[in-house]
Amino acid sequence: MKTENQKAWFFVLPVLLLVAFNALIPIMTVVNYSVQETFGNNLFFWEGLSWFEQILRSDRFHDALGRQFLFTFLILIIEVPLGIIIALSMPRKGIWVPVCLVTMALPMLIPWNVVGAMWNIFTLPDIGLLGYFVNEVLGIEYNMTRSPLAAWITIVTMDVWHWTSLVVLLSYAGLVSIPDAYYQAAKIDGASPWKVFRYIQLPKMKTVLTIAILLRFMDSFNIYTEPFVLTGGGPGNSTTLLSIDLVKIALGQFDLGPAAAMSLIYFAITLLVSWLFYTLMTKDDAQ
Fold first, then answer.
1. Does residue 46 fall inside a structural domain?
2. Which of 2, 77, 107, 174 might form a disulfide with 205, Cβ 3.0–4.6 angstroms?
3. Does the pTM exceed 0.70?
4. Collapsing DSSP states into helix, strand and coil, what is residue 172?
5. DSSP track, 96-137
């Protein structure tokens, strides 16, 4: 009987312990603050679950959560189809393959705060190239500092530019793994391009698309730096996503108890929706 060698765990165990430690301490600190009130000087007063009740009944929380879900929904319905279309259009062989791959990867290499600052300058109506072009050349009034619609269009466009490449690269990896024999058989059968995509390419991309959707959901649902640098949550509270509102409560108002409770609710919602996404997308694989 063949026995498995478990010695590799001794090399992985230190990393697992380090990651667990780095995750456990912050979570326990947040849990501690979520059930207590503090006014500084390391003085705490027991509050129980009152902060959770306050957050769940708060219209401010519901509005911010709704804006967060709306942003994530828009990101997914734009970036996933767009990423697939671009991946299908990319060459499979030749010298243009590395050129396309590098070009696709470039936006993801830019730091998040730099992306927000770039798009802030780019879209300003007075000095920004895009802002000037839309206002002066196209004659369309565009000012994200005054118009909530313009602000929403800007933050969504910014995220699409920044992260569609991730969907493209993952989809492309799934496409290049398909053997040529599948395409040859489809050509012999006279399959249309749609049928090739529906019955050959899409099933082969299912695994990478599951990863892409989960990554894009978690990242867009917890996004903070780019929209904060770009709009600061304005104009008014029109682009104040849940992540931005959470930071405002924690650092702006220094209400650590409500902020801790909100962050745990935020964390639970992210885990729940991610689990639902994964369960629905892998339901057929389990059968």
1. no
2. 174
3. yes
4. helix
5. HHHHHHHHHHHHHHS-HHHHHHHHHHHH-TTT-HHHHIIIII
